[in-house]
Specification:
Layout: H1 2-19, H2 23-40, E1 44-54, H3 56-59, E2 68-73, E3 79-84, H4 86-97, H5 113-133, H6 140-143, E4 147-152, H7 158-161, E5 167-176, E6 181-190, H8 211-223, E7 229-232, H9 240-244, E8 262-266, E9 271-280, E10 283-288, E11 298-302, E12 312-313, E13 319-320, H10 323-328
Antiparallel strand pairs: 1-5, 2-3, 2-4, 3-6, 5-6, 7-8, 8-9, 9-10, 9-13, 10-11, 11-12
Helix pairs in contact: 2-5
């Protein structure tokens, strides 16, 4: 019994994923509101919106009396509907004709082809915005490709015009012009997907990319990333009062500075290695010591006497500074031997660590 329950839950989840998430209802809210704003400068808010799946027999009871029924044509000769209640229809027609929407509901009347001709451009614009919003959503399969085709005077012929299939129905209650008028709208489209398939998201990984290929691509990106390392000649601690009194041409004694013991620190302040100060093509340079396994690889790039600048790798040779220059800095202070805690051999990204 427990296995059967789990099997049903997994099957329902897989079916929901195949049918698409709740993208269409959210996208329809934005799309219709944008179309009303762009076409007639009319603010429209969605009070509520629900999604249902109805058969053709159930669908015939949806349109209210004197509702505007717009027939939509889609991919593979599929047919859908956009239905506007009389209250919503009158509010939109007023906004188009007199430029504003009154608070008084006019007397009920039968919708005409003129009403359909006036509102069909807004319907097509809203459906176009819906496709754009669902470009990367699975709901695009059943919600794309529909445009205005014709006007239906009443709901009775729908049983003959529409296919006997299951339909998705987006039922919305709209507030027009900041609550001046309220009306209902129904977007009816075939549940079977006949439209375009969604394109792959920009940040999605194609299914054709295997794990080894992904690991290699990730490793190449990480290995090519820049890493800034500070070359520190020495560190000096002094009271804040003395720091505030520093000025140009002052001389600070550096008793612990040594040209052959330059610390290499990362941006986080961690000590990652040591080097020796020298010259390379007339510039300050650092030769990495044997502690990090790169005694033959010079690091060039210090263009000024400030040894705290970032060093850049260079394949050329490097000359050590004369001994008298090093002696001018004083004898190096003894530094404790500490093993490096950075594993350079395992730096390349594999996608599995």
């Amino acid at each position: 019994m427990a296995g059967e329950v789990l099997r049903r839950k997994l099957k329902a989840k897989q079916q929901a994923a195949a049918e698409g998430g709740p993208g269409a209802d959210r996208a329809w809210r934005i799309s219709f509101a944008r179309a009303a704003r762009d076409m007639m400068d009319l603010p429209v808010d969605f009070v509520s919106l629900s999604t249902d799946r109805l058969s053709l027999a159930e669908l015939l009871d949806v349109p209210p009396e004197r509702a505007l029924i717009l027939m939509l044509e889609g991919p593979e000769e599929g047919l859908g509907l956009l239905i506007l209640s009389p209250d919503l229809l009158s509010a939109l027609i007023e906004a188009l004709t007199i430029g504003k929407c009154g608070t008084q509901t006019p007397d009920p009347r039968k919708p005409t082809r003129t009403d359909a001709a006036m509102l069909s451009p807004m319907a097509d614009l809203a459906l176009s915005h819906l496709e754009e919003a669902l470009a990367e959503d699975s709901d695009l399969v059943w919600a794309s490709g529909f445009r205005f085709a014709s006007f239906i005077e009443e709901a009775r012929p729908l049983g003959l015009l529409l296919e006997d299939v299951t339909y998705r129905v987006l039922t919305a209650r709209l507030s027009v012009f900041f609550g001046a008028r309220v009306g209902d709208m129904w977007l009816v489209l075939p549940a079977a997907g006949r439209g375009r398939k969604p394109r792959l998201a920009a940040n999605a990984v194609p299914s054709s990319v295997s794990r080894p290929a992904f690991s290699a691509a990730l490793a190449s990106r990480v290995d090519a990333a820049s890493c800034q390392i500070e070359a520190v000649l020495t560190r000096l601690s002094m009271p804040l009062s003395e720091v505030m009194g520093l000025s140009a041409d002052m001389v600070l004694p550096l008793p612990t500075a040594a040209l052959d013991r330059i610390c290499l620190d990362g941006l986080d302040g961690r000590h990652v290695g040591e080097g020796r100060l020298g010259q390379h093509r007339g510039m300050r340079a650092l030769r990495l010591t044997a502690e990090i396994g790169a005694s033959d690889a010079p690091v060039a790039g210090m263009g000024a006497a400030d040894a705290g600048r970032t060093a850049a790798m260079d394949a050329g040779g490097m000359e050590d500074l004369p001994s008298e220059t090093a002696a001018a800095w004083g004898d190096p202070a003894p530094m404790p031997e500490a093993p490096l805690d950075f594993d350079f051999g395992g730096f390349s990204a594999t996608g599995t660590d």
